[in-house]
């Protein structure tokens, strides 16, 4: 038996633009993605018998093949032609579910990376990303992590310089948001404001965190906020507590604010946590910090 553990980090979207729709229903996107400190712990053990077993601690998510981590293990075996000698996976779930934070994608990414290591298949990052894309558009980013420009359907990735450290307050209201439903709603939505992705990339390259905060923009925010007023309310609270900028992440409903001063970040976190238990004080993570 061999065992290894990895941190599976959540992501936020510093910008998110939807630029087109493909015939298969998927959308072209242009977004700056950022790994954050909040993470699940994923442990994989191989040589445990003859089947795949999953257990999820800290969440009532299903542990069968509807779980993206389970599907990642199945796909790894079929893609590599590895006979199953028993895989046991344990996920310690800390990332809020269906939150716009890529919780499922990052667990799947961690499983692929761990199995590549435990089975000595040496697929490397590029091949793992190709396999990961079959599980979901955000999985390739989660395999690599850090700060990236994501285009295509999210899989055409360009590494960006590390963003200067700021304090991130993250808040998920107790609402379920369906990613496909938000993508569908975007098709008929009038988009009033789009992110300036080039300016965001320049601000990141210049290490200017105030400018980064000013340029935060997500075209999905008005769509999700139109269905759930909590989104704007939380962003408003983050700003009134001193955030340099605050937006929704992904299709939502999580929102985050960027703070320069740790005491203001802590106060914002305390204020929001009193109403929303899924509130976190976290930070940006570089690719080196998410490397497993
Ligand atoms: C919106 C984003 C922004 O980072 O994040 P989340 O809100 O999920 O965190 C992503 O594009 C979500 O990516 P991910 O959640 O991996 O998507 P998938 O599982 O591949 O697809 C779920 C569904 O979303 C829609 N989808 C997804 C990605 C994309 N570029 N275009 C789409 O139209 C499709 O309807 C698809 O069936
Ligand atoms: N390991 C997993 N962790 C979280 N969600 C999962 C997982 N496997 C499958 N899912 C399902 O994926 C859907 C999206 O959840 P998640 O990946 O957390 O959010 P998002 O796509 O908004 O970033 C949910 O409906 C959830 O039930």
TrEMBL record:
<dbReference type="GO" id="GO:0050515">
    <property type="term" value="F:4-(cytidine 5'-diphospho)-2-C-methyl-D-erythritol kinase activity"/>
</dbReference>
<dbReference type="InterPro" id="IPR013750">
    <property type="entry name" value="GHMP_kinase_C_dom"/>
</dbReference>
<keyword id="KW-0418">Kinase</keyword>
<feature type="domain" description="GHMP kinase N-terminal">
    <location>
        <begin position="67"/>
        <end position="146"/>
    </location>
</feature>
<dbReference type="InterPro" id="IPR020568">
    <property type="entry name" value="Ribosomal_Su5_D2-typ_SF"/>
</dbReference>
<protein>
    <recommendedName>
        <fullName>4-diphosphocytidyl-2-C-methyl-D-erythritol kinase</fullName>
        <ecNumber>2.7.1.148</ecNumber>
    </recommendedName>
</protein>
<dbReference type="InterPro" id="IPR036554">
    <property type="entry name" value="GHMP_kinase_C_sf"/>
</dbReference>
<feature type="domain" description="GHMP kinase C-terminal">
    <location>
        <begin position="211"/>
        <end position="277"/>
    </location>
</feature>
<feature type="active site">
    <location>
        <position position="138"/>
    </location>
</feature>
<keyword id="KW-0808">Transferase</keyword>
<dbReference type="GO" id="GO:0019288">
    <property type="term" value="P:isopentenyl diphosphate biosynthetic process, methylerythritol 4-phosphate pathway"/>
</dbReference>
<dbReference type="Pfam" id="PF08544">
    <property type="entry name" value="GHMP_kinases_C"/>
</dbReference>
<dbReference type="GO" id="GO:0005524">
    <property type="term" value="F:ATP binding"/>
</dbReference>
<dbReference type="InterPro" id="IPR014721">
    <property type="entry name" value="Ribsml_uS5_D2-typ_fold_subgr"/>
</dbReference>
<comment type="pathway">
    <text>Isoprenoid biosynthesis; isopentenyl diphosphate biosynthesis via DXP pathway; isopentenyl diphosphate from 1-deoxy-D-xylulose 5-phosphate: step 3/6.</text>
</comment>
<dbReference type="InterPro" id="IPR006204">
    <property type="entry name" value="GHMP_kinase_N_dom"/>
</dbReference>
<dbReference type="InterPro" id="IPR004424">
    <property type="entry name" value="IspE"/>
</dbReference>
<dbReference type="GO" id="GO:0016114">
    <property type="term" value="P:terpenoid biosynthetic process"/>
</dbReference>
<dbReference type="Pfam" id="PF00288">
    <property type="entry name" value="GHMP_kinases_N"/>
</dbReference>
<feature type="binding site">
    <location>
        <begin position="96"/>
        <end position="106"/>
    </location>
    <ligand>
        <name>ATP</name>
    </ligand>
</feature>
<keyword id="KW-0067">ATP-binding</keyword>
<comment type="function">
    <text>Catalyzes the phosphorylation of the position 2 hydroxy group of 4-diphosphocytidyl-2C-methyl-D-erythritol.</text>
</comment>
<keyword id="KW-0414">Isoprene biosynthesis</keyword>
<keyword id="KW-0547">Nucleotide-binding</keyword>
<comment type="similarity">
    <text>Belongs to the GHMP kinase family. IspE subfamily.</text>
</comment>
<feature type="active site">
    <location>
        <position position="11"/>
    </location>
</feature>
